Amino acid sequence: MKVLKVKNLNFGYNGSQILHNVSLEVERGELVAILGPNGAGKSTLMKCLAGVFKCKRVEVFGKPINEYSREELAKIIGYVPQAIVPGFMRVFDTVLLGRRPYMGLRPSKKDIEAVKATLKMLKIDHLAMKPLNRLSGGELQKVNIARALAQEPEILLMDEPTNNLDLRSQVEVMKIAREFADSGKTAVIIMHDVNLALRFADRFVFMKGGKIIKDGGRDVLTPELFEEVYGVRSVIAEVQGAPVVILDLES
Ligand SMILES: Nc1ncnc2c1ncn2[C@@H]1O[C@H](COP(=O)(O)OP(=O)(O)OP(=O)(O)O)[C@@H](O)[C@H]1O
C-alpha cells in the first residue's frame, strides 16, 4: 500500500486553478524533495497532502484524506508549514502541542519525555522556556520542526524547513529527515537548494506551473531540466562521488 497517493488532482483558489492533473505516489522509507520555481504550486500541493485542504483525490495509507478525523490525521502526518506567526507561547509548550493527539487532560510522563528528547535532538533544549516571539528565525524554524516530530508521525511534510537555517543546522535538519525515512517512515520536503536535496533525498519531484514535470532519482537531474524548470544554464559536476549542480554564468 502506498503511504501517499495523489491521483489526477486539480486544485485552485477562488476559481483560479493552480494544480493541474497532479499525480504522485510515495512509498514507505522514501525521502522525497519537491522542487521548482516560486509560485509553481509546491506549497499548495503540500497543503493538500497535509489535509489542510480536504482533497478526496489524496489518499493516505489507502484511504481518502477527507475521511480521516483531524485527530487521526495528527497521529499520521506531521506538517511543518512555511510561515508561522510567533506568539507569546513558550518553546516547550509549543512542542508539547505536538503531543496533543496522544494526551488526555494532562501530559503524561511519556509526553514530557518526548518533548525533551525532541528539543535535544534539534539542539534547542536551552530555549525551552523562551517565548516564540523572542526567537531568531532559525530557532523558530527548529521549534516548528520539533513540534511536528513530537507528534511521532508516520509522514513528515516540511515546507522549506531549511529556510533561515545556518549551514550546520541545514545539514542537521536534513539528517533528521534522512533518519526519519531510513527508519521506515516517509518524508516529503519542499526545497529550493538543489544541492542540499541531492545530498539527502532519494527522489526529486520538479513542479512548474502547477504541474509535475519530472519525478525520479538523481538521473533525472540534467542541465536540460534546469533550463526547462528554472530557465538557467547549469553544469553538473561530481564531488566526492555525488552530483553537484553549478550555475553556468558564462554562456
Ligand atoms: N491562499 C491563497 N489564495 C489565493 N492564491 C493563492 C493562495 N496560496 C497560494 N496562491 C497562489 O497559488 C500559486 C502557487 O502558490 P504556492 O504557494 O503553492 O507556490 P510555491 O511553489 O510553494 O511557491 P514558493 O516557492 O514561492 O513558496 C501562486 O500563484 C500563489 O499566488
From TrEMBL:
Keywords of this entry: ATP-binding, Nucleotide-binding, Transport
Pfam families hit by this protein: ABC_tran (PF00005)
Domain annotation ABC transporter: ranges: 4-234
GO molecular function, one term: ATP hydrolysis activity
Superkingdom as given in the UniProt entry: Archaea
Protein name as catalogued: ABC transporter ATP-binding protein
The organism of origin for this protein: Thermococcus aggregans
